[in-house]
């Protein structure tokens, strides 16, 4: 406070992480900024901000929505393929165990 400098805590809000953060600040490992560099907060009507949060003024275009839909579909296909491969690998593993068991009986 006396030097009018600040820095942000990034990480978990726990006693251990805060203690490590403060140690880093005090030892100079964590850089600080002058309060002179802080930009003033933007003043906006609450109703406008609430509408933006709810998605009314988010600025998302139909093109962006389409891109997100395609990304979700691709991720779902990849997940389905991964599950299929894991099921096949498990099936093959069980099949090999059965074959080995028969050889041991001879």
**Strand arrangement, largest sheet?**
1-2
Secondary structure: helix percent: 55-70%
Query: Would you identify the regions where 5 or more consecutive residues have pLDDT less than 50?
Result: none
Total E-strand runs: 2
Mean pLDDT: 82
Beta-strand content bin: under 5%
Give the SSE order as H and E letters.
EHEHH
Major sheet: size, sense and barrel closure?
A: 2 strands, antiparallel
List the helices and strands and how they pair.
Layout: E1 5-6, H1 15-27, E2 33-34, H2 46-54, H3 62-105
Antiparallel strand pairs: 1-2
Which properties best describe this structure?
106 residues; mainly alpha; two-stranded antiparallel ribbon; 2 strands; 62% helix
Q: What does the model show?
A:
Helices cover 62% and strands 4% of the residues. It is mainly alpha-helical. The longest helix has 44 residues, at 62-105. The N and C termini lie far apart (83 Å). The model has no long low-confidence stretch (mean pLDDT 82).
Question: Outline of this structure?
Answer:
The chain is mostly helical and 106 residues long. It has helices at 15-27, 46-54, 62-105, and strands at 5-6, 33-34. It starts with a strand and ends with a helix.
